[in-house]
Amino acid sequence: MNLPTAIPHLKAPLSLTICISNVCQQRCRFCGINHDEVKPKFLAPETIQNMQWLKDVKDICVCGSGEALTHPQYCDVIEAFRRMAPQSHIMLYTNGIGLHGKKLDATLKYCNTIHISQNAVDRKTYNTIMYKGNFERSMKNLEELAINKRDKDVIVKLSLVVLKETIPSIPKFIGLAKTYNFSEIELKLGRPPFRNYSYEMPASSYSVDVANDINLSELKNLANRAHVKLSYLSLFHTQKKI
Asked: Residue 204: helix, strand or coil by DSSP?
């Protein structure tokens, strides 16, 4: 991936979202990207080292137009971001499948926030909404993260795409966040992908009526008792647009 290493005559942005990989090892049945057709591309650590303007960026989100942790040099990449932006708030956005071992260690060392697009915390839901994935690895990684973050000042946030099939599992997300001392659960309204796939979710999965299908008041009370932040305002905003 070729990105500008200098921004002549312009100030650095206050916030930056940067994709470091277009490869994904998971196939969400509600995703709009055909990851089977992409030509693998990865952001080179050397490119980051030439981005002198990164030091002036307040918030940096490291993600993938696939999955960030599929980058073969992820540990070097995340270290380079911290070295070039020592005062910035760095967030990793990930599906969590690769968040273990050395990649977990590097993330906890160099990131301020970890946002995991988890989408399912029970096997039944996971098998329903995932075409390819690894439920056991996913759940084991959450446990490993909870153990290793205990002495780290790192915020962990989980999110899920709200579909007919995922609504019943929202309380389980809150319970898991409480058990593992994660900070926040974010609900995002699912939208049908622009392309058709053989493994995509049925149209009925997206016919969610926020006002009637989700008891937000009850969920918020449950989250408050668990001392977990529940974010869901985007549900109303997105549905209004649709």
From this structure: helix
